[in-house]
Amino acid sequence: MDAVTNAWPQKTREFHNHHFDSTIWNDFAFRNDDVVIATYGKSGTTWTQQIIGQLIFGGSAEISVAELSPWLDLRVPPKAVKLEAMEAQTHRRFIKTHLPVDALVFSPKARYVFVGRDGRDVIWSMYNHHARANADWYAKLNETPGRVGPPIEPPPASTRRYFLEWLEQDGHPFWPFFSHVRSWWAVRDLPNVLMVHFADLKADMPGEIARIAAFLGIEADPASWPTILQHCSFDYMKAHAAQSAPLGGAFWDGGAETFIHRGTNGRWHDELTAEDVAAYEAKVAAELPADCAAWLAEGRLAGNAASLAA
């Protein structure tokens, strides 16, 4: 990777809101085998954390990715607490971020797995996450000192309205989507970046897990492979949701099983009008390169992004 040292992305800004404090990456000490799982959110993040955790720990049923793989740029708990906890880890670390590349300290020491998903599916999943959040969730995000910008508030009653506000207001009430995807697409050819798509995980989970393992240099024991696959299935994760959801799901009505919801795509078909779909597709066309837009819509295995073939 030394040959492309001069091409490494540089951090050009900080990102703050009710969720983010990007400054934590300025003080994070990378190790040579760190894994960074990068997503917009509700794109298969927890699923990918589970996959990588299972690969690192050889199919163990005891690991809790919610504890072992923190969202580093989430502004709670305080960054000093989080950095100390990360420094104390002795296993191969796998860390979650929801930052775009330009707000992230990007290290040649780490390997980055970016997970994408169609924006309409993202928001249908995000709506469940937001609508089922309880008072403790709002208090933690809004009342913890250091918040920059307005508080996060309850969503509208209509998922369609939620989607349209998100589309029209550039990621409201969370953070911009298209610039986020565009930033990761731009670095997809770096040797320490792997692009993974939610739809591909759904279509061929064993093949995609093997692809991730090869990228990370992990040679799974054949005897443990069936267990790894079982532990990465949606049914297993739903049944063991407390191991995946932050604080065991305490921030959501219905607990951890609300956090691990359906894992399905296409629910937006029943609620968006033809005009809504056209508006989304026009936004995609305006914001993303054509090959990126095709990949985001259907993934690598649909044949729409041959440049990402394994």
From TrEMBL:
Sulfotransferase domain sequence ranges: 33-281
Gene3D superfamilies the record matches: P-loop containing nucleotide triphosphate hydrolases
Keyword Transferase among record annotations: yes
UniProt superkingdom: Bacteria
InterPro entries in the cross-refs: P-loop_NTPase, Sulfotransferase_dom
Family per similarity comment: Belongs to the sulfotransferase 1 family.
Protein name listed in UniProt: Sulfotransferase domain-containing protein
Species of provenance: Jiella endophytica
